[in-house]
Amino acid sequence: MRRLFGSVRARAALGATVVVAVALVAAGLAVLLVLRANLIDQADLQAEVDAQNVASQVAVGRPYGEVEWPDDRPVQVVGEDGGVVAVSEDLEAIEGAGSPEVRVGGGTGKSDDAEDPGRGEVSGDDPRLSSGSATVDGDRADYRFAAVEATTPRGQTVTVYAGAPLATEQDAVGTVREAMLIGLPVLLVVVGGVTWLVTRRSLRPVEGIRREMAAITASEDLSRRVPEPDTHDEVARLAVTTNETLAALEASVERQRRFVADASHELRSPIASLRTQLEVGAAHPELLDVEGAVGDTVRLQGLAADLLLLARLDAGERPGPGRVDMGALVREEVSQRADRVPVAVVGEGAFEVAGSRGQLARVLGNLLDNAQRHARSFVEVSVRGERGAVVVGVADDGAGVPVAERERIFERFVRLDDARTRDDGGAGLGLAIARDVAARHGGSLSVGEGKRGGALFTLRLPAA
């Protein structure tokens, strides 16, 4: 049972059936109440007409024996003292009218006393209405009674009780109720079945997506994609989003694999070189290249630091809440540069951003290293404010970056000059680290062409 109602189809069918059932029951009750009220109103109107008719005859002084009684409907005339003055023909019993008696003065069922000449009147007040029952010619039934007062020509006040049968109301209400009791279950079965089928058809693509995702999980083949239904609805958008997620996951996994492979390759060279030098030094101490061993160790240490920083960035590490003056940081980084290629700073003033001073210093250091590596004779660093942002530009007068390669250089372990040595070109992580740090600080890093024809790297960060 739990498994059955654990499905979306079952819950949707059950929910739709319950909602329709509640709506139909409420509507049915409303129809029955309105129908019954209308039929009772008609019975009240008929009873009032009959009572007014008899009361009018009494008011003009017609003898009770000559009164025209309604056919097959009970009428009772009651005096001021509560005694029965007259009753209609064939009335055998009555309840809910003026008196339970149906005999006049304990004798006949009608009075033949003549009234004095003259004319009485009929009360203009609204008739009193009540429910009761009566037996007419052996048939007992429920009635609605209307009570109308009349004054005879002799000044006697009587009350005429006329009844209208409720059989029509009872038959109509019973027929409608039976129709509802028969039709409601059938309609609910139809609603539940149709909802089940429609939901099943609508969720069929979802089941296909689930099966394909299960197969992808089992095979670990991220190149597979889930089927996209041609329905242009929420399920189709779910399939498109799922495929986009799979594509991003595939690209991320491939990037991680390539990163691990490249990192292993980059680490292998300095480790192998350092081991060779140490082994030679162990066998022939006089041949030990201490400076080369130290260089390889420094290179290995820097590469390991770069890899750790990238790992922290990939794990979602966010910069701290501190404030950094980019103008002061630029001047500090430039002052620590070697004099191989001179670096000029353009821009004065304080330009504060929010973030990690160490990571932003790493970005500036990587950009300056890259610029000095490719510049012929000059590097320029500019700092300025621009529409709520702090913009740092690092330009050189080197060969520049081809347009087709301007995004590729920010990939990890990418070196455009494949012929250069690792000592001259690095491992290809500096620009990748710089862009990742800029993105973590809510900024961006791009490359274009400088005024002197070389590369211009533009770092844009939100102003604090």
Describe the structure.
This protein has helices spanning 8-59, 167-219, 234-283, 290-314, 326-335, 357-374, 422-425, 430-440; strands at residues 75-78, 84-87, 91-95, 121-122, 128-136, 139-151, 157-165, 323-325, 343-346, 352-354, 379-386, 389-396, 444-449, 455-462. A hairpin with a 5-residue loop joins strand 6 (139-151) and strand 7. The chain is an alpha+beta fold. Helix 5 packs across helix 6 and helix 6 runs antiparallel to helix 8 (430-440). The protein folds into three domains: 14-172; 234-312, Helix Hairpins; 320-462, Histidine kinase-like ATPase, C-terminal domain (Heat Shock Protein 90, 2-Layer Sandwich). The strands form three sheets. Strands 1, 2, 3, 4, 5, 6 and 7 form a seven-stranded antiparallel beta sheet that branches. A five-stranded mixed beta sheet has the order 9-11-12-14-13. A two-stranded antiparallel ribbon has the order 8-10. It is rod-shaped, with a radius of gyration of 51 Å.
Mean pLDDT over all positions:
83
Order of helices and strands: HEEEEEEEHHHEHEEHEEHHEE
User: Into which percent range does the helicity of residues fall?
Assistant: 40-55%
Shape: rod-shaped
Structurally, the number of domains stands at 3
Largest sheet: 7 strands, antiparallel
The proportion of strand residues reads 15-25%
Oligomeric nature of the chains: single chain
Number of DSSP E strands:
14
* SS element count, helices: 8
- Unreliable sequence segments: 106-116, 418-425
The SS-based structural class is alpha+beta
For the termini, the CA-CA separation is 60 Å
Radius of gyration: 51 Å
